[in-house]
Design brief:
Layout: E1 2-8, H1 14-24, E2 30-36, E3 41-46, H2 50-59, E4 64-71, H3 83-108, H4 111-133, H5 138-168, H6 176-198, H7 209-214, H8 217-235, H9 239-262
Antiparallel strand pairs: 1-3, 1-4, 2-3
Helix pairs in contact: 1-4, 3-4, 3-6, 4-5, 4-8, 4-9, 5-9, 6-8, 8-9
Length: 264
C-alpha cells in the first residue's frame, strides 16, 4: 500500500472535504482518506491508481497538488462511529439558518442576507449529498449532485437579477440592524458546525479548531455581511448590501459548479 499526501490550497471547510470524498468514492484502490483542514492537507492510502486519484483531485479545481508518495504498512483505519450523526447535525444547523436568513433577508430587504442564506443552503446540500450517497450507487449519487448544482445556480441567477433591479431601480434601503444581528448568529452557527465536525479528529488537532474557524470562507462571508450592514447605516445607501450580495452569489455559483462536476 502507498500513502500519498496532497496539498489542497482551497480546502477551507468541511464542505470541500465532502466534495473530495464524493469525487474519490468510485476509485476502488483507495483504502482511507485522512483530512487535515487547518493545514489544507489530504493523505490518501491506496494500492495503485495514483494517476486517476491525482486527476480526480485536480478536476475539482481546489488547488490540489501532490506533495509525496511513500510505501506504508498501515492497515488499521478506525472510523468515528458518530460521523453520520455529526453530518446530520451540521446539515440541520445549515438548513435552519438558510431558512432564518432568507426569511429575514426578504423581510429586511437585504440581498447580503439572502445571498448568505444560499451559501448556507449550499453547505446543507453538500452534507446532504454525503448522507444520501451512503450505500447508494454511483449513478444515484451523480444524479443527486446534478440536481443540487442546478438548483443552486438557478437561485443565484435569480439573486443576481434582483441585485440589478435594485441597483438600477428605486433604492430599497435594507434594515442594517437585522443584517448585523442575523449575521452574528450565522457566524456562531458556522463556528459550531466546524467545531462539531472537528470533534471526530484526534486530540492533537484540537488546538487548530479556532484557527480553522476564522480561515473559513463561510466566516469571511458572515463578517462581510456584518461590515456591509455597518456601511449601509454609515453611508445611508443600499450599495454595500448589493455589493456583498453580488460577491456571495458569485461564490454560490462557484460552489454549484463544483457540485456539478461530481455529476459528470
Amino acid at each position: 500500500m502507498e500513502k500519498t499526501v496532497f496539498e489542497i490550497s482551497k480546502m477551507d471547510c468541511p464542505s470541500e472535504e465532502n466534495l473530495i470524498r464524493m469525487k474519490l468514492d468510485s476509485i476502488s484502490s483507495i483504502q482511507h482518506l485522512q483530512f487535515d483542514i487547518p493545514e489544507r492537507k489530504l493523505t490518501v492510502f491506496h494500492s495503485g491508481q495514483l494517476d486517476e486519484i491525482e486527476q480526480s483531485i485536480q478536476a475539482l479545481n481546489l488547488g490540489g497538488q501532490k506533495l509525496s508518495t511513500i510505501p506504508t504498512d498501515q492497515t488499521d483505519f478506525t472510523e468515528q462511529a458518530n460521523q453520520r450523526s455529526l453530518l446530520w447535525k451540521v446539515l440541520v444547523i445549515n438548513f435552519v439558518f438558510f431558512l432564518v436568513e432568507i426569511t429575514t433577508g426578504l423581510i429586511s430587504k437585504s440581498m447580503g442576507l439572502v445571498a448568505d442564506s444560499l451559501d448556507m443552503l449550499a453547505d446543507a446540500l453538500v452534507y446532504g449529498l454525503s448522507l444520501f450517497a451512503v450505500g447508494g450507487s454511483l449513478i444515484r449519487k451523480k444524479r443527486i449532485a446534478r440536481m443540487a448544482g442546478y438548483f443552486q445556480i438557478v437561485l443565484a441567477i435569480i439573486g443576481f437579477i434582483e441585485v440589478l433591479r435594485r441597483f438600477f431601480g428605486t433604492e430599497q434601503f435594507p434594515d442594517y440592524a437585522t443584517m448585523i444581528v442575523v449575521s452574528v448568529f450565522a457566524l456562531i452557527a458556522n463556528g459550531l458546525c466546524l467545531y462539531l465536525l472537528q470533534k471526530s479528529r484526534s486530540k492533537e488537532e484540537a488546538h487548530m479548531k479556532a484557527s480553522m474557524i476564522f480561515t473559513s470562507n463561510d466566516v469571511i462571508i458572515n463578517l462581510g455581511v456584518i461590515i456591509a450592514g455597518v456601511l449601509v447605516n454609515w453611508l445611508q445607501s443600499n450599495k454595500p448590501d448589493l455589493i456583498i450580495g453580488t460577491i456571495v452569489f458569485g461564490l454560490v455559483i462557484q460552489g454549484a459548479l463544483r457540485i456539478l462536476k461530481l455529476g459528470k
